[in-house]
Amino acid sequence: MKKSIFAFFLSLAAITMHAQYSQTIRFNPPYTSYNNRSIILQSDRIPDEFWGCTLGVTNEADALRNLNNLGIPYKFFPASPSSSSDVISFSDEKIGKNIECEGTRFGGVAFWFYNKILWKVLFFNMRTDSKTLANTIRQKYSRFSCVKDRFNNIRYIGNSADIVHSDAALQYTIRGGSCMNFGE
């Protein structure tokens, strides 16, 4: 009897934990912590792979296939005369789950393509305090050279990828990629 009661409570706890975990789509680069008073370890590289898509390598067709395989609904925006980039975007409202990166919640993610190759991943509509993100990024990527760009964004420069953050967004680009203005 005790074993069956214990098994019941254990399965109830497992179901609750699974339900909470399944409500968040996380992109957590190596060595990430969740900003809940845990230690943030320094990273030896700036990530360049997101949900199976690699900056500077993955083409549009492969990215669409990866998102379909993961069951993530998205919108595709082809390049317009004012923009030379195709964009694949998804938001937390459309997928019904939270989007989290570097321990911070965001409202959406956009994959930017130039000549059909992924060159930028933008996390936008920050849902948590930007100071928390800034502190995490500063601690985690302190090994990399850091500059302020012309838009007052902070850029950490890695070997193959850069990370740029502002008060409202976070982006990963191929090395030397564009700044964070929407519509570039």
List the helices and strands and how they pair.
Blueprint (H helix, E strand, L loop, with lengths): L1 H20 L2 E4 L21 E2 L2 E2 L5 H11 L4 E3 L7 E7 H4 L2 E4 L2 E11 L2 E10 L3 H11 L4 E4 L5 E4 L3 E5 L4 E5 L10
Parallel strand pairs: 1-6
Antiparallel strand pairs: 2-3, 4-5, 5-7, 6-7, 7-8, 8-12, 9-10, 10-11, 11-12
Structure description:
The protein has 184 residues and is of the alpha+beta class. The protein has one domain. The strands form two sheets. Strands 1, 4, 5, 6, 7, 8, 9, 10, 11 and 12 form a ten-stranded mixed beta sheet that branches. A hairpin with a 2-residue loop joins strand 7 and strand 8. The C terminus is likely disordered.
